Amino acid sequence: MNQAGGNPEGxxxxxxxxxxxxxxxxxxxxxxxxxESLLPLLDERFEDAVERILASDGSLVVTGVGKARLVGAxxxxxxxxxxxxxxxxxxTEALHGDLGRIQAxxxxxxxxxxxETEEVKALIPHVRRIGACVIAMTGQTxxxxxxxxxxxxxxxxxxxACPFGLAPTASTSAMMALGDALAMVVLSARGFSREDYARFxxxxxxxxxxxxxxxxxxxxxxxxxVSPKASVREVLLTMSETPGRPGAALxxxxxxxxxxxxxxGDLRRLLEADATGALTDPVESHMGRSPKTVRGDALVADAxxxxxxxxxxxxxxxxxxxxxVGLLDVQDLLDTRA
Length: 338
Prior knowledge:
By secondary structure, this protein is an alpha/beta fold. It has two domains: 23-192, Rossmann fold; 213-336, CBS-domain (Roll). The chain contains 14 helices and eleven strands. The chain has helices at 20-36, 44-55, 67-80, 91-94, 118-130, 144-148, 170-190, 194-200, 204-209, 213-216, 232-241, 264-272, 300-309, 330-336; strands at 60-64, 86-88, 107-111, 133-138, 151-154, 225-226, 248-252, 258-263, 293-295, 314-318, 324-329. Helix 2 packs across helix 7 and helix 3 runs parallel beside helix 7 (170-190). The longest helix is centred in the middle third of the chain and has 21 residues, at 170-190. The chain is elongated.
């Protein structure tokens, strides 16, 4: 009798089943081959598409239907985050009022594997009347869409990974890869910098990596500054009374030029040496004289790497003249992860 959760009657416990891993591997191999097959298709048409996007002072409008629309939405987001203003526009919505989003100075990237998607074909004549440039991404270079376009990006004839040859799989991988290549080449040609990228990505873990030290450093009343002649006891009081109780004080001269740093670690070493009398010594006798420093416009990620490499918990922030402008404590970095 068949028990719930047991083997079906008459079935062997180790009955043969499909090799899921082998099937998955074949899908990945097929899609990889499809992407690699794009290489010989990179020619003057691709160069033309790059130049037209760079020459436009409008937006890149990406359109498509179904899975091509989803690929287009991702590509539009990639362009927008790397220096090319872009929107994703559904062709049906465009034909019912959103056509007003397209201007003559724009470039329209229309994506369709077959090049015969009805909604896309219906949209393009209106785009041409507006005067916008049309770039088609398709696997059929003789299709209606290709004939209506100014530039055709060819993804080639694609065999889908679907066992029925129907579900868009390898074709969408090709669209994504070719679109990413277009976006990255345009990015490079624009001279889009790491700083530009940081400006467009202020949030999340990515945003944290691209934050500047000046955004998180301690400054103003949270920055403990002491004279080289101040006693170690006075320095400890300053650190204790400073908001946030930093683990270090910066030792500066009368012009705020950094002379050294005194940290909790320096105090611990004095106590371990039973040098309690040192509390009345001037801090310049016990401070670190060559402290590690960063500039305020340095990336937080770079400052964090310095802290890790040198096994320190604080780092002084200085300006171009070597004057102390801030202090970065390891706790400040932990707070950015909250």
